[in-house]
Amino acid sequence: MPRNNKFLGHLVAFLTVAVWGSTFVFTKLLLLSGLSAAQIFTLRFIIAYVLLMLFSLTRKNHRWLADTWKEELLMVGLGLTGGSMYFLTENEAMNYTTTTNTSLIVCLCPLFATALIGAVYKSERLRPSQMLGTVLAAIGVVVVVLNGHFVLHLSPLGDSLAFAACLCWAFYSLLMISANCRYDVVFITRKVFFYGLLSMIPYYLLSPEGILSLPAFFAQAFSDGSEMGLSIVANLLFLGCIASMVCFVAWNWALKTIGAVTATNYVYINPVTTIVFAWLILNERITVFFLIGTALILIGMYLADRKKA
User: Fold this and answer.
1) Which of 8, 73, 75, 192 is the most exposed place for a label (fewest CB within 10 A)?
2) Separation of alpha carbons 145 and 251, rounded Å
3) Which of 12, 80, 52 lies closest to 244, judged by CA?
């Protein structure tokens, strides 16, 4: 593959994770406004799916289904692992454990993704120096997330849910290898949104108020002041248009261009960008532990991406 494409793949992976890092801040603002985690996920995926479907309809090679039912099931798996199951387990984990525990466990998913992909694809297994790099980056994540407070409040249920989210993203990365060999990224991403939304139906059958209460919520938001209502809509549009539609297409392309293991290592950057955006938007403080952890992440990622001489 041309070196320009490789460089662009790394740049796209970095920028995508940088945007995803900011979503914790915008999601927090929406949660504070009164929306639930499930409602936020559903609304952002609806926005993303509608926009991507409109774009797909303009393409000459537009298709509705995969070539075989087995490959359509592969798309279902992507929608579950990268959509509904990932977001529900991650957000639900924060109801039972601390945000620190959740962030720490979820952001360590490259370790599990690397092990899982390496177990299935021999060509993707890391050399000892590369494994050292990914472990070093993981240590950097621990330093950044704990931020000098080296005390974890263990919660078996909450931590298990966070670990489930971590595994979901690892399996998503694994399944994307097979999907990228057969289909273009726009088709795959549209399927992720579709099956992610479809698999939310059982959730809303058990909790129908999650959907039924949305009209009243937006009516109340705008009645309290147009500024508040517009802020909620703007945050949702950012999460749906940029963080979901654009970023999922970009991420899936990066997985295809630089490989699932290399791209997934960029998830280590996630807590770094989250803290930077929290500093810019929420005026949260940047500490020396953030700087040390960031340095470890960058050094570790450099080692993990080194090619065999």
Assistant:
1) 73
2) 23
3) 52
Radius of gyration of the chain from its Cα atoms, rounded to whole angstroms: 19
Q: Where are the alpha helices (DSSP H) in the chain?
A: 3-33, 37-57, 69-79, 85-93, 99-106, 109-120, 128-146, 156-180, 185-198, 201-206, 209-212, 214-223, 226-237, 247-258, 260-264, 270-281, 288-304
To the question of pTM greater than 0.90 for the whole model, the response is no
Given a contact cutoff of 8 angstroms between Cβ atoms, the answer to whether 40 and 84 are in contact is no
- Please check the confidence at residue 271 and state whether its pLDDT lies above 70: yes
CA dist list (Å): 110 to 3, 117, 288: 24, 10, 24
Task: Name which of 129-133, 177-181, 219-223 the model is least confident about.
Answer: 129-133
Q: Which amino acid is at 137?
A: A
Q: How many CB atoms lie within 10 A of CB 231?
A: 15
Dihedral over alpha carbons 44, 245, 134, 143 (to 10 degrees): -40
Residue 181 DSSP class? T
The structure tokens listed for 289 are 């532990």
* Signed CA dihedral, 186, 187, 189, 193: sign only: positive
Task: Report how far residue 16's alpha carbon sits from residue 144's, in angstroms, rounded to the nearest whole number.
Answer: 19
3-state secondary structure of 250: helix
Tell me: the pLDDT tens digits for 2-46? 566 788 988 999 899 888 877 777 877 888 888 888 898 899 999
Residues 47-81 pLDDT 10s: 999 999 999 888 877 888 999 999 999 999 999 99
Q: What is the dihedral of CA 168, 170, 176, 177, to 10 degrees?
A: -150
Residue 86 CA, distance from chain mean position: 8
User: 87: which residues sit within 8 A by CB, 6+ positions away?
Assistant: 37, 41, 165, 196
Residues 6+ apart with CB under 8 A from 99: none
